[in-house]
Automatic annotation (TrEMBL):
Domain CBS span(s) in chain numbering: 674-740, 770-828
Protein name: Chloride channel protein
PANTHER family according to UniProt: CHLORIDE CHANNEL PROTEIN, H(+)_CL(-) EXCHANGE TRANSPORTER 5
Subcellular locations according to the entry: Endosome membrane; Membrane
Organism: Onychostoma macrolepis
UniProt family annotation: Belongs to the chloride channel (TC 2.A.49) family.
UniProt-recorded Gene Ontology molecular function terms: voltage-gated chloride channel activity
Taxonomic lineage of the native organism: Eukaryota, Metazoa, Chordata, Craniata, Vertebrata
Length: 834
């Protein structure tokens, strides 16, 4: 029997060292967070190792003639230390703040859970029903996320529209009506002055009884600025006091979280509540920002909160990130009314792990969210967005040239914006400017309101501006952008005067020239304030400001092309463009193409952006212009800088994000990146059977590393496995509480068989159940491009470096990020987390 035990030990030890095992069924996580100085960067303490690696390893069939083999340790007849399904030891398998999850272990836990549910379902009807409900729970969760996100988006749209109009006046029939809804029921509204009705009163008319003259302008100007300052002040105070994570867009952090990073509270209930409220306030204040990006954050908050009601997603971080990927699609779906574009946005831009079932569920959740928003009908036009348009005039082949020019402009704008905004955010972060976020928001709001009110196109909200610029002038339009004169020279305030001659013969009128220089001035202001505003301590999206910049540039170019074609319609190049009863050129189409180009230059979106714009217009005919402009924008922007605005902010904040699009072309090896280095401290390792509780606790107290390799002995550095700090601490505390006789001199065992012990020795603490017996390993000669691919595709936190089974060092995710930054001539110390 004793020989069989020794042979069993040898066989199991040899089997444990087989490199084909890739699951990590047992593991934990570090107990310390970033603030306390712990990070995966310091998983082990490595330096001039005193171990002599040249020494031959003793045979594995050690003599445990006085010992015994047993599968598991059960103190006081209690369950084993770690059970992947029962979680008998609370805390094991969980993660601390500002650390990375173990994707391999999480997927292994889910496979084990699913395997057990499947086996039990064959034994009883109750277990079968539970198995069915478990399979259906994912679809139910998607339904709830879609309903909740759609309802919140509808409420945000209605509230933001009302509060934006509140800056200019109030409805006497009911203060809860916005300007448009107030005048709908009025019988005294004329078509020429559709925005004026007796029921809607400006602040000047209410306060001083002035209906015209300079007094009206001054009072309305003053009230506009006051309301803007009040809304912005409330937004920044609420964010600062209750939910600091509610500021910004949220997409850079969402991308980092989806890659496996833990940011506690970022998707919590307080963040959801404050972000919803302050998003309405920030948009209504008139700041150059949008609500579309933050809606992705809001949808992910909804998903994270709802996940807590489903055990499958509450206990598994990898499964929860599949839900968050679907929630990202929901956010874009309710932001633009584009369910398909939202799914593609999640796949192309934010998701790190996107299996096929997540694609189906994302589509279902986005569909439910869009249906919910359509049922609410926040804009009263039966559309999901305020700037939905339909074009009917075909485009001409030669128009691809100005479309490509718009793409070039979008790429240049994107590269300029990213560099300027990152420089401004770095200045805010490294100087005293960052110490006064409330003052910064108030000052920027003050200057924005002072400069925006005199210009019609900056005074209106960005969504209304985009709707105005996308609009295709018709017979009933009274906008300045549709102010034309007929060929005969008769002046007209609208296109009505040209109806007899056909809309194809439109020459610019005085109102159009006025609108052109106002748009040019608005373009400059939008570009400047977009750079300054994005990144402040209020919810701020980037989609709408970028689209507004591109739409203004596109409309200006479209009007120029239109007038050029009209004035030279007899030339060969323009012959056939203009015909009676039809437009020569659609300036609104240029605005839409410009909006797509500028948004693509900033975010580097391609396929998803084209689909979103297609869903906005509802026409397949304009996909080619959109594709041409979007690809040109991306090529130009990539030539000037490879990072999108979100990746740039991820790098600015030091998040541990391995970008899948970035190629590693350097010819370095694992030995060039691994630690220990010559100047590093000694390697802190655990032995599988020769350490006491006191020694392990002293090692934990003296170091801040997140885990320790386990070797056979200091003289025989053959790798046995890897144990994480958090699991080790929790297991030792559990053993002291529940196992009788555990003292400081009790031995720690990671072996399957007990070594010989004297009868008077204290009982051993067996921790094999928390030992990862199959840590990922590479050799010192493994190229770093392979190591980087392994970390990207498997989501590893650390990888051990061995040679002939002997432990030589370790490579963490932070080591790789620092190495990549060093190879790119960037500061490697900018990587703050792991």
């Amino acid at each position: 029997m004793l020989k069989l035990c020794a042979l069993g030990l040898k066989a199991s030890a040899l089997e444990e060292r087989l490199p084909t095992v890739v699951t990590m069924d047992n593991g934990g996580f570090c107990d310390d967070n970033y603030q306390s100085g712990s990070s995966d960067d310091e998983l082990v303490d490595i330096s001039d190792v005193t171990v002599d690696f040249s020494e031959d390893v003793p045979p594995l069939d050690r003599d445990y003639s006085a010992g015994r083999c047993k599968a598991e340790w059960r103190p006081n007849n209690s369950p084993k230390l770690m059970d992947l399904l029962d979680d008998t030891v609370p805390g094991i398998g969980t993660y601390e703040d500002f650390n990375t999850i173990d994707w391999v272990r999480e997927k292994s836990k889910d496979r084990d859970r699913h395997r057990e549910i499947t086996n039990k379902s064959k034994q009883s009807t109750v277990a079968l029903l539970f198995s069915i409900s478990d399979a259906f729970s994912g679809w139910l969760l998607m339904l709830l996320i879609g309903l909740m996100s759609g309802a919140l988006a509808g409420g945000i749209d209605i509230a933001a529209h009302w509060m934006t109009d509140l800056k200019e006046g109030v409805c006497l029939n009911g203060f809860w009506f916005n300007h448009e809804h107030c005048c709908w029921a009025s019988n005294e509204t004329t078509f020429q002055e559709r925005d004026k009705c007796p029921q809607w009163k400006s602040w000047a008319e209410l306060m001083v009884g002035v209906s015209e003259g300079p007094g009206l302008y001054v009072v309305n100007y003053f009230m506009y600025v006051c309301w803007a300052l009040l809304f912005a002040f409330l937004a920044v105070i609420l964010v600062r006091a209750f939910a600091p994570y509610a500021c910004g867009s949220g997409i850079p952090e969402i991308k980092t979280i989806l890659s496996g990073f833990i940011i506690r509270g970022y998707l919590g209930k307080w963040t959801l509540i404050i972000k919803t409220i302050t998003l309405v306030l920030a948009v209504s204040s008139g700041l150059i920002l949008g609500k579309e990006g933050p809606l992705v954050h809001v949808a992910c908050c909804c998903a994270n909160i709802l996940c807590h009601f489903f055990t499958k997603y509450r206990r598994n971080e990898a499964k929860r990130r599949e839900v968050l990927s679907a929630a990202s699609a929901v956010g874009v779906s309710v932001a633009f009314g584009a369910p398909i574009g939202g799914v593609l946005f999640s796949l192309e831009e934010v998701s790190y792990y996107f299996p096929l079932k997540t694609l189906w569920r994302s589509f279902f959740a986005a569909l439910v969210a869009a249906f919910t928003l359509r049922s609410i009908n926040p804009f009263g036009n039966s559309r999901l967005v305020l700037f939905y348009v339909e074009f009917h005039t075909p485009w001409h082949l030669l128009e691809l040239i100005p479309f490509v020019l718009l793409g070039i402009f979008g790429g240049l704008w994107g590269a300029f914006f990213i560099r300027a905004n990152i420089a401004w955010c770095r200045l805010r972060k490294n100087t005293c400017l960052g110490h006064y976020p409330v003052l910064e928001v108030v000052v920027v709001t003050l200057f924005t309101a002072l400069l925006a009110f005199p210009i019609e196109y900056t005074r209106m909200s960005s969504s209304e501006l985009i709707s105005e610029l996308f609009n295709d002038c018709g017979l009933l339009d009274s906008s300045k952008l549709c102010s034309y004169t007929s060929n005969s020279g008769s002046a007209s305030g609208s296109v009505n005067a040209t109806a007899a001659n056909g809309l194809g013969a439109r020459l610019a009128g005085q109102g159009l020239y006025t609108a052109m220089w106002q748009l040019a001035l608005a373009l400059v202001l939008k570009m400047f304030f977009t750079v300054v505003t994005f990144g402040m301590k209020v919810p701020s999206g980037l989609f709408i400001p970028s689209m507004a910049v591109g739409a203004i540039a596109g409309r200006l170019l479209g009007v120029c092309m239109e007038q050029l074609a009209i004035r030279h319609h007899e030339q060969d190049i323009f012959r056939g463009w203009c015909s009676p009863g039809a437009d020569c050129i659609t300036p609104g189409l240029y605005a839409m193409v410009g909006a797509a180009a500028c948004l693509g230059g900033v975010t580097r979106m391609t396929v998803s952006l084209v689909v979103i714009m297609f869903e906005l217009t509802g026409g397949l005919e304009y996909i080619v212009p959109l594709m041409a402009a979007t690809m040109t924008s991306k090529w130009v922007a990539d030539a000037l800088g490879r990072e999108s605005i979100y990746e740039a902010h991820i790098r600015l904040n030091g998040y541990p994000f391995l970008e899948a699009k970035e190629e590693f072309r350097h010819k370095t090896l694992a030995t060039d990146v691994m630690r220990p280095r010559r100047s590093d401290p000694l390697l802190s390792v655990l032995t599988e059977s020769r350490m006491t509780v006191e020694e392990v606790e002293r090692l934990i107290a003296d170091t801040t590393y997140s885990g320790f390799p386990v070797v056979i002995s200091q003289q025989s550095p053959r790798l046995v496995g890897f144990v994480l700090r958090r699991d080790l601490i929790i297991s030792l505390e559990n053993a002291r509480r529940h196992q009788e006789g555990v003292v400081s001199t009790s031995p720690i065992l990671f072996t399957e068989c007990d070594p010989p012990m004297s009868p008077s020795a204290p009982p051993a603490v067996k921790l094999r159940s928390i030992l990862d017996l199959s840590p990922f390993t590479v050799t010192v000669h493994t190229p770093m491009e392979i190591v980087v691919d392994i970390f990207r595709k498997l989501g590893l936190r650390q990888c051990l470096v061995i040679q002939n089974g002997r432990l030589l060092g370790i490579i963490t995710k932070k080591d790789i990020l620092k190495h990549m930054a060093q190879m790119a001539n960037r500061d490697p110390d900018s990587i703050l987390f792991n």
